[in-house]
Amino acid sequence: MKILLVNSSSIPGHVQIGDGGMHPYSLLFLTSYLKKNGYPSQILDLSTSRNSILVLNSYLNEMKPGLVGFTATTENRFQVWDMISLTRRVLPDSVIVVGGHHFTYTADAALEAIPEIDIIVRGEGEQTLLHLIQVLEKQGDLLEINGISYRSKNGTVNHNPERSCEPDIEKLMIDDDTYTDVILPCGSYSPYMLLRNYERERIKAIPIHVGRGCPHKCVYCGYSNMKYRTRKPEAVVDEIERKKKLFNCDFFHLQDPTLSKNTAFLSQFCSELKRRNLKIQWYAEVRADMNLDNLELMASNGCISLDFALESGSDTILETIKKRIKREQVEVLLEKSHKLGLRAFLFSMISLPDETERDAVMTRQFFESNGRKLASIPGQAVTRIYPGTELEKMAFERGVLSKNFSWYDRTYKNQMPEISAETPLWIEHLTSDFIRRCQNEMSDLNKRKLDSQSIKLSLAFKKIQFYKSKKDTAKLHLEILGLVEDSMCGEHLQEIVNYIVSRRFDNAMTELKTLNPLVFFYNDRITIIIALMFALATLRKNNIISIKELVRKISNFWHVFDDTLPELFDTLRSNGMITMLEYPLYFVDANDSIHIAYLSEKARLYSQSNRSDKAYLLRLKIEKYSADSPVLSNYISSALFNNAVQDIAENRIDRAILRLKRTLELVPEHKKAGLLLDQLDGKNG
Q1: pTM of the model
Q2: DSSP character for 592?
Q3: Phi, psi of 607 (to 5 degrees)
């Protein structure tokens, strides 16, 4: 019997493309498990297809599978329903099986509304689907299969007893060769996903499944209905070590919502990482009530990124939703993460049970007070009601959902149709307009955060210039310390500044070695570079060897991401601070990317002061560098283009054409170079 499992787009109408997208993991687990047990199957992944119905129709006619399986979310249930109906029309004798959280908790309603469904696999599907296929193969009795719902021959719905979860989830892990069983009509898979909280830097990470289920009982979440289990630490590290070599990747995304509470696992996992000297960097999801000793253990063993949930800034609401945390715990964890150099993202929700406008304002105020410590200020998720959750039960009891509500009523639309119109929302004490206003205010917080940081930086620069002109070294020192005070690892950075200013260079080097430049927020990284270089600029021309070593170490802060350099020099230029850094930049290696950026800046200044010959000579130096990154390509192409313009002005047309061609080789989308080259070619023609 041919087996085809179908994955629809999780959001109707949304086409998933790129490294940040999710693979169809639920179906990959199923296919891998079936294959291990002698039953090959294929996955048809339609998440990247623009017309999934047409594509499905084509593959059904071509493959003619005997069993077709569908998984559905609450958001895409109607889209999957259309696919089920199509399958029955194309293959009237096939067995149609559905599963996933939504069908699990709406089994009665689904079987009543969608007559084309033959069987619903409830809960964790690997063992149940295997057992079902074995019974169908021998034409056995469905009554013997735990964990399914179906219609009997007389039309009544049968719900067989629940199936116990597999305690050893290592047996359920996805084998590497499972991807060969996937049909992806459009696009291709990447083994990576973007590392959480490092999306701006485009850092790619390998996902690693660690645990399933959740022991907590938040009212809005159905994940807690599945028993919590984790893999053995050694097995997880085995997979990390293997994939580190296979993909030459040092970044990993650990997938387990309760990892931080599992002290025994964490201890063994971190010990194993250290024993094997793997030197990876990783992300984990944690809870605000975690043991802070575990946080230090994670940070010292490569963890650089966290997610955790606030949900509400009101302790009253946190108690209502059974979050089992306090606002203060979130603040403490956030502060500790910031000091340890862990980027953090905080989930928040709005329109929760019992939430009033006052409670909603408390959530926004939390982010106003603590936003500086976050990778970004999140948008607020409006609370959605999902089947099988305690929130669903509360919704019917309180009249948030009418007694006549059906999960399969195609006419249903929620009060905020811009948010997945077919998914019910918890709208109780807050109006839709108030919710939208709160969401807009949260969006504005990010911009205000950046604006306030820029204003603070400008004020500090003015004071630094003033104290330098007055030779007031004590106040100058204090202003430099103030630059890094609010940064991640702020106390540590202030200590380094103190060591530099007091000429305790060995101590400064030792402390710099303990910092990971990668973890600092983009704008903080620029501020830190400026502060440390300003500290060096206060020194006289002695201890040259030590200053060179320090500059080389500080250079790690711009080497991790070269795209820091343009904004660094924009910041210095707009505040008139370029000349203050000439002394420490003198010690930069001639091949360093910041040296190229500095030459480019000096050439720009020469051009502005009508010293075009000096600017031309500096740009000649820049032209000789290798374009090892997009940023360096931009600096080199800029030098080439500007020298080409000067060549034209001085009638060196052949040189100009060569420079313009090389400009376009480095930056093909350089419109000005293209237009100028076309003009010159036209004249020559």
Answers
A1: 0.88
A2: S
A3: -60, -40
Q: How many CB atoms lie within 10 A of CB 55?
A: 17
Q: At 150, phi and psi to the nearest 5?
A: -165, 170
Domain tally, the chain: 4
For residue 149, the cross-strand partners are 120, 159
From CA 298, how far away is CA 397, in angstroms rounded?
A: 43
Report strand pairing: 211-212 vs 119-121: unpaired
Shared-domain flag, residues 145 and 216: no
347 located within any domain? yes
Tokens 């793997």 map to which residue?
278
Residue 175 lies in a domain: no
User: Residue 279: inside a domain, yes or no?
Assistant: yes
Residue 393 has pLDDT above 50, yes or no: yes
Distance of CA 95 to the CA centre of its chain: 38
Least Cα distance to 333 among 376, 293, 281 occurs for 293
The verdict on 197 and 327 lying in the same domain is: yes
CA–chain centroid gap for 335, Å, is 21
Q: Establish if 345 belongs to a structural domain.
A: yes
Q: Name the CA radius of gyration of the chain, rounded.
A: 30
Residues 346 and 463 occupy one common structural domain: no
Torsion of CA 70, 71, 74, 75, to 10 degrees: -80
Q: 397 and 376 share a domain?
A: no
Alpha carbon dihedral 54, 60, 63, 64, in 10-degree steps, equals -160
For 420, residues 6+ apart whose C-beta sits below 8 A from its C-beta are: 11, 75, 384, 414
Residues 288, 368: Cα–Cα separation, whole Å: 19
Same structural domain, 245 and 165: no
- Let me know whether 326 and 396 are in one domain: no
Residues 282 and 136 in one domain: no
pLDDT in tens, 362-386: 999 999 999 889 888 888 999 999 9
What percent of the chain has a predicted confidence (pLDDT) above 90? 73
- Start-to-end CA span in the chain (Å): 69
Angle at 138 between CA 133 and CA 141, to 5 degrees: 80
Q: Residue 409 is part of which domain span? A: 387-425
For 490, the token pair is: 């702020």
